[in-house]
Task: inverse folding
């Protein structure tokens, strides 16, 4: 194959994994919650085989799907963006990244305060919108940074753009990233800029993630090392700590990310284009906004045929997710431990049921074989089944 387009519909899970209860997520299913709204209209994803995946018959199976289809259980011990993407790229994380349900200890906060010269507000798990509503006024008055976490392995810093300009906030995040290593090596340090006035604060699109470096070679590293193009769209560059991409572009929205993907499909390159569409998770999953999630799925579905018609004989598309974030699950606002769907499309892809497999890393092994690059991964390629 010449070009592989890998789309991650961030958080678009398809049902609770067997160990979901251990993560506090019994009975979750992101796609089912969307389907129950009665407003889900995804004929093109259904045509690709989404409803034919085991357990997804509520999406109405089609007689002969256009491509290969199946679902994957996560091998890594987590349900967050970082290790989900790492696993998609071939790296399994048997140990969970550190989380802080009681907030960060003083041994973490003291050196951060000393290095930034600023105080700290919040220091607990919070919803991103709620924490700026609660602490925004005090932050604006004092200049202290709003530091918070979630159920994920994240150290998040929120600051008003008029108090701490984004570039300064990014520098504070770099400081935190350098300090948070070893036993406190959180998956991501996240800049969360916001604007507005008291009672009307709003997060901006200037979010920036500073990820822990993957512990070993990833698919992106392998593609780049082989002299091929390794293109990151959206959060990909940040998730892999800048490693393994030959070029990257950020998204300001799903629509922006889809526009970038269309730009690349119209361009001649050889290698991988890895696309993350984060609105599903950030704007709708965490906010438990079922209608918004459904609208985003409908928009991607409507966009997809125009993209597919641009594919050549040596092109292939994979569509998957990195975890769940069930918008209908009200026990928490966090990610949910779910299987993820996998659809494979292209002019030379067979209509075949890939079944249920353990490990997102099989995606990496398959892409590595398709692009003829060397990758050390526990994943097993399914190339022979799909072509």
Result:
């Amino acid at each position: 194959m010449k070009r592989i387009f890998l789309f991650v519909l961030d958080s678009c899970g398809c049902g609770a994994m067997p160990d979901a209860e251990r993560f506090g997520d019994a009975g979750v299913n992101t796609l089912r919650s969307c389907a129950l709204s009665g407003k889900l209209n995804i004929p093109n994803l259904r045509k690709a085989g989404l409803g034919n995946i085991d357990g997804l018959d509520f999406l109405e199976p089609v007689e002969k799907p256009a491509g290969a289809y199946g679902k994957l259980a996560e091998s890594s011990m987590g349900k967050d963006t970082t290790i989900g993407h790492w696993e998609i790229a071939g790296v399994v994380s048997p140990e969970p990244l550190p989380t802080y349900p009681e907030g960060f200890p003083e041994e973490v906060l003291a050196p951060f305060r000393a290095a930034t010269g600023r105080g700290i507000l919040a220091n607990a798990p919070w919803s991103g919108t709620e924490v700026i509503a609660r602490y925004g006024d005090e932050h604006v008055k004092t200049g202290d940074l709003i530091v918070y976490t979630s159920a994920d392995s994240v150290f998040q810093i929120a600051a008003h753009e008029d108090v701490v300009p984004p570039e300064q906030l990014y520098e504070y995040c770099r400081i935190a990233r350098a300090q948070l290593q070893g036993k406190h090596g959180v998956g991501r340090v996240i800049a969360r800029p916001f604007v507005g006035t008291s009672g009307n604060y709003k997060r901006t699109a200037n979010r920036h993630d500073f990820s822990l470096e993957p512990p070993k070679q990833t698919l992106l590293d392998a593609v780049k090392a082989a002299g091929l193009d390794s293109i990151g769209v959206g959060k990909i560059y940040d998730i892999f700590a800048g490693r393994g991409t030959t070029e990257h572009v950020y998204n300001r929205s799903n629509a922006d990310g889809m526009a970038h993907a269309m730009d690349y499909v119209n361009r001649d390159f050889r290698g991988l284009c890895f696309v993350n569409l984060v609105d599903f998770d950030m704007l709708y999953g965490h906010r438990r906004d079922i209608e918004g999630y459904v609208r985003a799925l409908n928009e991607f579905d409507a966009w997809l045929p125009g993209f597919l018609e641009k594919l050549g004989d040596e092109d292939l598309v994979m569509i998957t997710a990195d975890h769940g974030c069930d918008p209908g699950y009200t026990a928490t606002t966090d990610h949910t431990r779910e299987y993820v769907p996998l659809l494979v499309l292209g002019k030379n892809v067979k209509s075949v049921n890939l079944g249920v497999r353990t490990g997102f890393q099989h995606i990496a092994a398959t892409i590595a074989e398709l692009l003829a690059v060397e990758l050390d991964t526990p994943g097993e390629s399914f190339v022979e089944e799909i072509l």
About this structure: DSSP finds 13 helices and 14 strands in the chain. The chain has two domains: 3-95+213-386, 106-210. Residues 106-210 form a domain with the Alpha-Beta Plaits fold (CATH 3.30.70.1250). The longest strand covers residues 188-197.
